[in-house]
Amino acid sequence: MEYGLVIIAIILCNTHMAVFPMYFVFFLPYIVEEILSKFFINDRKKYLLGKIEIERHDKLKSLLIIFGISALVGVINPSGFTPYTYTIKTMMGNTMQYIREHKPLDLQFLLYNKQYIYAFIITIIIIIYPKIKIKICDLFLLIGLISLCFISVRQFSLFILISSSIFAIYLTKVINYFFKLKIFKGENFVLLKIVSTILIIFIILMMSIKYFNKQRKVEYVIESKYPINASLWIKDNLILEKLRMYNSYEDGSYLIFQGIPDFVDSRCDLFTYQFNKNLEKENDIFTDSMSINNNEQNYKKIFKKYNINACLINKSYSTIEMLKNDSNFKNVYEDDYYIIYIRKDFEGYRLK
User: Fold this and answer.
1) CB atoms inside a 10 Å sphere around CB 41
2) pTM of the model
3) Pair type for strands 45-48 and 52-55
């Protein structure tokens, strides 16, 4: 388990932009356990408060070497030290005001995803069960993962992924403990053990199949959320080389997928001052985009700033109402979900 998590740590830390806090979350639990075992216990294993297990592995030097090598490898990338400063820069920037996954974990998120609350409760019950001992490294790892969630909701998937392996180990210990009870002793209860095991496997299998079938029926690209037809129209009717189109943050990624130049997209780091020093402080592309969506700033000023000659807008945005009354723009496309406006002097429109 320990070595598996260390390997996962190396892979994740060197492929994830928020590398700095992740290094500590993955490595520190095992380093701390080794240090505590050397200074506070004489035997190979000891229990604190009769519950928390400290085990001596004599691998401190190896862990520190791996930690150092991984930290050095982390800077071998085109962005240099950005992986180590990413989390701090994100927290100092303005994306946390608008992007849900950048915000800290809150009760609203948990209430919307109630299954995670159930997972929390079950995990806590298993860990505090008096007959089950918990390793101090696992305890620290869980605390670290939860701390990452409170820094940013995007880390919650990592918590589910890693904590599930820990949860499975202690769930197995609970099941084995019950199988050792007197009710399961003797030849007459062999069948009961088998039936219980099959029942647990069946429940897990049915829950997995139910979840898989539910996700399988979900559309990958939903027409109401992505400009599917509008993108096809743009490629057929507008000259992309002359296009300077405004779009919302949510639509940018799909436009890139279709090969259409966008104004802003979900690679928000490229459009914020904290990561792109070519932009204006407190007045970068991301901020300008969000200020239009939320009617915080006059769109005409921003359109002039970036020489915008076309707009792709979801009908759910109030920007549509403003452009309807703008004499400089005209409506050239409309479907059930999206509208396209072009500036009247735009020279890249094929159907003039």
Assistant:
1) 15
2) 0.70
3) antiparallel
